[in-house]
């Protein structure tokens, strides 16, 4: 009976694409594999590097191939807000990226394209539209990403993580589904008690955050006297902090774990009492779901101030406090950590779980939408 049901599943191909939405894509991949109606051949098209002008492997390229996803890299340029030595090469890359995306889509012949935004996604969305492949966009933020805004005319449907971003898109195309979260993170239970010596996860997203790393460097020994640290540095700063660890006093060295990349974020979340992080939409959704008190340091230079709005959402939910980057110095960080430690029980107990409940069902809703629109 089981073999017969497998034969009855329709075979479809899907292209996933995006810039910095690897964990969202991973949650969707998990759900696609559970689809009882369709056997999905899954492809990912993304940028070759996570940072313009640097050879940094993106989260998607590190993680998705192990899940049976065919991964393809394109040369993708992005519009620069400030002119730099990377601006001209980035502009030249835009048409090149489109042509390569077009060629890949002809080769793959997908039934549908699902975009999570980011500079690598737009050429894939445009090429899909020209080839008459239905496009769904998922917007993770409280506002709107530039690539999703530009891509919206070419999409059949726009799935929203947050109601607040509806105003940025054509109303007839939008529906609210939440922000997909991987199963291993959804299974994490809130901690009932704060550890005697709390463990703090410091992360700037999959590529790290050098502004946060710089301030942590200032107060590293101070923090290690009272806390254990799991420091996700990103590739650019990893060698420096490895050396920094070797120079610590023996009693502090054992309390400091340094990682260039964390593949199993659920395992890290499970260990920690508190988090210091950028306010990417995925991180905010995960923090609310697992109820780990967090200090968010939003990126201030996004077009629609998305990260600040994401952080404010977590603050309103009761699980976070915010440090503006222009106020970020070592002394302020240490004081905010003390504040969160003092209010830890109140923050965990008082977290509004409505968004967490919405996000728990998001991957399933998004995959059902994909199934409905796949040609």
Based on Cα principal axes, name the global outline. Answer: globular
Mean pLDDT over all positions: 89
What is the total tally of β strands? 13
CATH topology of the largest domain: Rossmann fold
H/I helix tally: 17
**CATH second-level architecture of the largest domain:** 3-Layer(aba) Sandwich
Low-confidence stretches: none
Secondary structure: helix percent? 40-55%
CATH class of the largest domain: Alpha Beta
Order of helices and strands: HEHEHEHEHEHEEHEHEHHEHEHEHEHHHH
Question: How much of the polypeptide forms β-strand, as a percent range?
Answer: 15-25%
Q: Over the alpha carbons, how many angstroms does the gyration radius reach? A: 21 Å
SS class:
alpha/beta
In order across it, which strands form the biggest sheet? 3-2-1-4-5-6-7
Major β-sheet, in short?
7 strands, parallel
Characteristic key phrases:
globular, seven-stranded parallel beta sheet, 375 residues, Rossmann fold, single chain, six-stranded parallel beta sheet, alpha/beta
Explain what you see.
This protein is an alpha/beta fold and 375 residues long. It has helices at residues 2-8, 22-33, 59-63, 87-108, 121-130, 146-151, 183-186, 210-226, 235-246, 250-253, 265-271, 281-290, 306-317, 330-342, 344-349, 354-360, 362-373; strands at residues 10-18, 38-47, 70-74, 112-115, 135-139, 157-160, 174-176, 199-203, 228-232, 256-259, 274-277, 294-296, 320-322. It has a seven-stranded parallel β-sheet with strand order 3-2-1-4-5-6-7, with helices on both faces. Strands 10-9-8-11-12-13 form a six-stranded parallel β-sheet, with helices on both faces. The longest helix has 22 residues, at 87-108. The chain is globular and about 60 Å long.
